[in-house]
Design brief:
single chain, mainly alpha, 0% strand
């Protein structure tokens, strides 16, 4: 499928140089680069999601170890709701 896109001059020059270096046509290299970029983006996004989940789980375990046998206390939402009620009574 044909399409038209606008690229910054320096980026187009860089892609043309890369195409020449690989002995490929520009029309063949651009789809390869786009696919590789999309794969990398998905891989990095998935890894960040796993890292975030692992970090949160470790943080929660640490909190449980530091405060054994204590209740969790009110949630942030409950604290805000109580503050709103208090301010409304004024």
């Amino acid at each position: 499928m044909k399409t038209t896109i606008e690229l910054p001059d320096d980026l187009l020059t860089e892609v043309k140089v890369e195409a020449a270096r690989r002995h490929k046509k520009l029309k063949d290299l651009v789809p390869e680069l786009l696919r590789a970029g999309l794969r990398e983006n998905r891989t990095v996004g998935a890894a960040k999601g796993r890292e975030s989940k692992q970090w949160l789980e470790a943080w929660l375990r640490l909190g449980e170890e530091a405060t054994p046998g204590t209740s969790a206390g009110p949630t942030a939402t409950e604290i805000l709701a109580a503050d709103r009620r208090r301010l409304e009574r004024r």
